[in-house]
Amino acid sequence: MSYNIDIKKLSNLSKIEVPDSEINDTSKKIVQIINFFNKLDEFVIDGQTDIDYNNKIELQISSLRDDEPLIKKNLNGDTIENVFKFEFPHHKNGFVLGPRI
Amino acid sequence: MSDLFRLSGYEISQKIKNQEISTEEYINSIIERIEKVDEKINSFISKNYENALRKAKDIDKRIKCNENIGKLTGIPIGIKDNIAVRGIKNTCASKMLSDYISPYDASVISKINNEDAIIIGKLNMDEFGMGSSSEFSHYGAVHNPWNLDYVTGGSSGGSAAAVASMQVPVSLGTDTGGSIRCPSSFCSVIGMKPTYGTVSRNGLISYSNSLEQIGPVARTVFDLVPLLNTIIGKDFNDDTTFNYKQNLLINKIEDIVTKRYRIGVLQDMIEKCDTNVASVIYEKINLLKNYDCVISETNIQYSDFALASYYIIASAEASSNLSRYDNVRYGFSSNPEGYEWNSYFSKSRSNFGDEVKNRILAGSYVLSAGYYGKYYIKAQQIRSIIIKNFINLFKNFDVLVLPTMPILPYKIGEKSSNPVELYHSDIYTILANLAGLPAISIPAGFSKNGLPIGIQFIANSHDEQKLIDIAMVCEKSYTFNKWCPEI
User: Fold this and answer.
1) Does A31 touch chain B (CB under 8 A)?
2) Which ipTM did the prediction report?
């Protein structure tokens, strides 16, 4: 089965710019992938194949830890430990630069 | 002393502890080896020589002062470039993260450091772990040490190639759909994907959370087991890890034989392989009979649907995970000032490689409102059925055996233009990821033209010991640990 996929709409949803020169090639590859996914159409659901979350290994064994805040503060409200310091690529006057919203 | 790089990590660690050689001397020989060999292989993205030598000197000092030292003392380890190591570039082989330096250590890195291993560098891979050939890297393809024109397999191609070419005795990789086992098979080394939840994923730059695991790559079981024992265990920064810690052992062959392991041969899968692969796999299965293993044929139902289900789930999770890369919090140098948000966001993300973009687009498609039930829910239903199949199989078998890869390594560039053709090469490795099971790829032999072939064993969850035992039998019976490429 062949699918006609609106690659512009899909790239907009995915927030990935696809230049006009690459639309045909990208579209061809995505159609190949979706046709491959359509293999699942041959699988008939018999009504007894609900997702069984108990099969997930981690839930059988793991217990949830207590929720502890990663960032700790002193009495003045200042952060005192466990804080990662990120190096933002672009900043100005102490602010991180970002695009307009 | 120039051949020190040929020794296993276990042998080296003993020599260092006994003060037969110094750690500094050994690390210098490893650096020399990497500088000589890696220009042909391209397995390293970042090198960590300065810190490695500093740590080597510190270890030597502590040994002289009779202070406590760890069980991985002096062993140099290469780390796949999607695992965070503080202060070193963490690129995931992507232009998107080409300038990103990790501000913290992944939990596995802290554990390795605590045992006095030495991180020698970060290893090449398919961008964000998406690929089966290690060709989709911003830093260029990794070359197979057995034949430089061929792929290493992926996505942990750098991890396997660095070990096979004796640049490091051990490395860490990650396995989302066979990313440790595939390159281990193509490069003739051992690679293990542990049970999901055995090893913490804290600090792993995630692509598909429900499928991936960190695991070791080595040339010998004697190096694989200590590294695995170091990284497994509960981590409070990763709630998918579980509460008990296994202590895996390297058992004697006489003890392994008494266990009379029941081995299920996935016959259909072997017969669908390249004939070179099938004949080597049958030869090694027959060899296991000499060790009192009970061999019988079996199969897995619905495995035909597993591959599509795997790629639907992985693409869906990838599209969600990679939405964080907006080039503001981390990314490459591209000033956002003056841009409108959506256009800047989309333009920056167009710098992902082609395969990553394909998977994000496909993931967005299968998660979109009209198709969610048709693809994602159905894939999860099939995943449940496959897990149930495995649960039933392991009532009758201790381990299952099948080829790691259905094909031989292929030439670089030969298959990279057709994504679906590449996906089909993962057909035997994705099963363990869908079911969260432990699996190991062990070197099995070579094709007529000298390309490596791997044999894969899958065990029930938390049965890593059975896989180690089988690997030990293979190592003792045909000494694959002595196989090494001429570079």
Assistant:
1) no
2) 0.91
